[in-house]
Write a structure and sequence with these properties.
By secondary structure, the protein is α+β, with helices and mostly antiparallel strands. It has helices at about 1-15, 20-30, 35-45, 50-85, 105-115, 130-135, 170-180, 220-235, 285-290, 310-315, 330-335; strands at about 120-125, 130, 155, 160-165, 185-190, 205-215, 240-245, 250-260, 275-285, 300-310. The protein has 11 helices and 10 strands. About 30% of the residues are buried. Bound molecules: 3,4-dihydroxyphenylalanine.
């Protein structure tokens, strides 16, 4: 009598299936709760004759195990199903998310690298945290020379010898220390100056440094290289002009202007109605700098130049506020979506 009941229950348990948690809970209550079928069997067990007890006891325990295993198995099946179909999501479908795009500063940096690599310049990098020697001393800034005030430096508080580099000219020092001419390299990178943030200035910005050292390098080579660069970057009708300037690490030094690519030289508010915009500083590497870096200044000459990537990007894309580059505003960045 009891054995048949148990066999029927076992059959019911084996055939049971549920695809939702409510049905599974009802199943559990039916068999396992205090007033459920299995506790009832244990109660009835008291009236089982002693010679049958062993067998019936095993049957009841077998049924209990079967119920418990069924619950675990169905729960697992429900959980793994819900992992792939939560609110109708099919995680195996291909992704349709928009692809990321390059930042405008990266686009222009890559273009500058490309232009110079076509005439044999390599790319070199140096640390953003620099020592005084590489950022100033080797570049012919004597200690306490007022020229150091040209650049508002972030020093590391505990060590006045260590600072965030104020320009990528520090990389030319590292390149010359580590190799002998002929050298032809550009160094793009991030630089830091303690300046108030405005539409025209930021405390973090980007530069590209250029260096060419060999025998018989002249100012004519400098001019021709930068003329080629300006035409490649701004178009073949671009004109250039040089104005005398001063940098401690070059002698003679100059600043280079390009004809305003916005008004074509006629005059507008970007070029302040002059028809020209300044884009870089340059000059012949001062012999002291060569000597400081163990390059024989009697044998070799060189030219160097340095430009701000933000400034060039603003000019190329007619962007009028430097802060846009650092705010990560999608409305701004999306406009460069097609640039690779
Ligand atoms: N280091 C200069 C600056 O940050 C830029 C510069 C000027 C670099 C002239 C040069 C150079 O290599 O020859 O303002």
């Amino acid at each position: 009598m009891m054995k048949t009941k148990i066999t029927q229950y076992l059959e019911e348990v084996n055939n049971f299936n549920a695809d939702n948690i409510e049905a599974l809970e009802a199943f559990r209550i039916k068999f396992l709760s205090k007033k459920g079928l299995i506790p009832a069997l244990f109660t009835d067990f008291k009236s089982v004759p002693p010679q049958e007890r062993k067998e019936v006891g095993q049957l009841i325990n077998g049924l209990k195990n079967a119920v418990q295993q069924k619950i675990v198995a169905l729960k697992e099946a429900m959980e793994s199903a819900s992992e792939t179909t939560v609110s109708g999501l099919d995680l195996t479908l291909p992704v349709e998310a928009p692809l990321g795009t390059r930042h405008p500063l990266s686009v222009v940096r890559n273009e500058i690298i490309d232009i110079f690599s076509r005439i044999g310049f390599t790319v070199s990098e140096g640390p953003e945290i620099e020592d005084d020697f590489h950022n100033f001393t080797a570049l012919n800034f004597p200690p306490d020379h007022p020229a150091r005030d040209m650049q508002d430096t972030f020093f590391i508080e505990k060590d006045p010898d260590i600072a965030l580099r104020t320009h990528t000219s520090s990389v030319q020092v590292r390149v010359m220390e580590n190799a002998q001419p002929p050298l032809r390299t550009i160094s793009p990178g991030r630089v830091f100056r303690n300046e108030a943030i405005s539409a025209r200035a930021h405390c973090i910005f980007h530069q590209v440094e250029g260096l060419y050292v060999d025998t018989d390098v002249s100012f004519a080579d400098l001019k021709q290289t930068l003329f080629y660069f300006a035409r490649e970057l701004f178009g073949e009708h671009t004109k250039i002009r040089f104005r005398p300037s001063y940098f401690p690490f070059t002698e003679p030094s100059a600043e280079m202007d390009v004809s305003c690519n916005i008004c074509g030289g006629k005059g507008c508010n970007v070029c302040k109605y002059t028809g020209w915009v300044e884009i870089l500083g340059c000059g012949m590497v001062d012999p002291n700098v060569l000597d400081n870096c163990n390059i024989d200044s009697k044998k070799y000459t060189g030219f160097a130049f340095g430009m701000g990537i933000e400034r060039i990007t603003m000019l190329k894309y007619r962007i009028n506020d430097l802060r846009l580059f650092f705010e990560n505003d999608m409305r701004f960045l999306k406009q460069f979506e097609s640039a690779i």
